[in-house]
Specification:
- The protein is mostly helical and 145 residues long.
- The protein contains four helices and two strands.
- It has a two-stranded antiparallel sheet with strand order 1-2.
- Helix 3 packs across helix 4.
- The chain is globular and about 40 Å long.
- The two termini are 26 Å apart.
């Protein structure tokens, strides 16, 4: 079951746009979605431990790989970092890379929402990216972050 709701896809797209803004990417640079996971890693590892973060990121990767097959070349290493994106079989065009990045981050956020709730997930994202406005994304069912 996919947890990549339109709301989480929107948050993921905003995060990738924020990470891309003013930065030039080369063919040898990791996808922006990986930067987002790296920025979230210390915060989530503090919350759920290193093994917990690896487990959640690994699950997000597996679920995203069902929709984007090239992601099967990517793995989560022992430290919780994503690797394998630079393998020859992982080479995809820029649009596919962007869409798969949005999906991966949306899956990660969706899993976080399932485990810690929407409000805490959005607060965590807001702590890591304080200049990013997420107020319009808060659910009408709960308190706003």
């Amino acid at each position: 079951m996919s947890r990549a709701t339109p709301q989480m896809r929107s948050v993921a797209a905003r995060l990738i746009a924020a990470e891309t803004k003013g930065k030039h990417s080369s063919d040898s640079a990791p996808p922006r979605a990986f930067h987002i996971c790296e920025k979230l890693r210390p915060h989530l590892a503090m919350l759920m431990g290193k093994a917990g973060f690896r487990a959640v990121l690994s699950r997000a990767l597996v679920v995203a790989s069902a929709e984007v097959p090239w992601l099967t070349t990517v793995q989560v290493n022992a430290d919780g970092a994503l690797e394998g994106w630079d393998k020859p079989e992982a080479q995809v065009d820029a649009e596919v890379l962007k869409e798969s990045g949005v999906l991966l981050v949306a899956q990660l956020l969706g899993l976080l929402v399932a485990f810690i709730g929407e409000n805490l997930t959005l607060r965590l994202v807001g702590d890591v990216w304080p200049k990013l406005s997420l107020e319009d994304l808060s659910s009408t069912q709960g308190d706003h972050p």
